[in-house]
Amino acid sequence: MRTNGTTAGVALVLGLAAGCGGRSEKAPAPVPTATTTAPAVLHYLASFDDEGVIQREIPSPSAPGPYFLDGVLYADAVALTGLLAPDTPVSLVDGTLVVNGERTELPARRHGAAIYVPVRDFARRFGAYTFIRGNLGTVWPRARLCEYRPRADPRAPVFQGAEAEGLFEGCPATRLHLRSQDVGGRVSVELDIVAPDWRHTERSGKMSILTSPLIPKR
């Protein structure tokens, strides 16, 4: 038994060596593998409070639900239009998305009767920003972005990402009113600041600055 095993092992080694000798031949082509998806969670920014942001999940009306494919987050287009632009019709033509009758360059994927779209690119069409961390994607609708902008830390990832995509353009500008008057030899300057509030209303704030006495010219 030991001799037969040794003989078989030698034959195997000699066979492999013979296959490697002589002219070098091209390596066999790699066997293609199916692209896999990873499940994701999709939220939207509903509002702000004193402690931060309030997020809610975007329910998916179809299977398989949100997922990542090659690093891109996909979700049901109907779920997204319900949040960003209710009653906007979407369809799929030759693998690309049609929104409200307009042909786009966005790739889309069909799952049964549902159409899945790349969330970030789709949301951007409606002025929304998608922040992704790990397997969680959060859609910031345009109204929430504009509320966030006046109070945002410019170093924050959401601020930098939205600004890089040009999503703050067109947001209502903060209005500043400057009034000054001479009060008893002093200059009184009053600033009236009106900016969007966290809760969809406008908030006014006033600040009065009383300067040092005027020094008459000699």
Topology readout:
Elements: H1 2-20, E1 37-39, E2 41-49, E3 52-57, E4 67-69, E5 72-76, H2 77-84, E6 90-93, E7 96-99, E8 102-107, E9 109-111, E10 114-118, H3 119-124, E11 129-133, E12 136-140, H4 142-148, H5 157-164, E13 175-183, E14 186-196, E15 202-210
Parallel strand pairs: 2-12
Antiparallel strand pairs: 1-4, 2-3, 4-5, 5-10, 6-7, 7-8, 9-10, 11-12, 13-14, 14-15
Question: Brief overview, please?
Answer:
With 218 residues, the chain is α+β, with helices and mostly antiparallel strands. The chain has helices spanning 2-20, 77-84, 119-124, 142-148, 157-164; strands at residues 37-39, 41-49, 52-57, 67-69, 72-76, 90-93, 96-99, 102-107, 109-111, 114-118, 129-133, 136-140, 175-183, 186-196, 202-210.
Q: Please count the beta strands (DSSP E, at least 2 residues each).
A: 15
Rounded to the nearest angstrom, the radius of gyration is 31 Å
Query: Which stretches are poorly predicted, pLDDT < 50 over at least 5 residues?
Result: 1-34, 194-218
Helix content: 10-25%
Question: What proportion of the residues form beta strands (DSSP E)?
Answer: 35-45%
Strand order of the largest sheet: 1-4-5-10-9
What would you call the structural class? alpha+beta
Shape: elongated
| Tally of individual helices | 5
Tell me, rounded to a whole number, the average pLDDT: 76
Amino- and carboxy-terminal Cα gap:
121 Å
Query: How would you sum up the major sheet?
Result: 5 strands, antiparallel
Order of helices and strands: HEEEEEHEEEEEHEEHHEEE
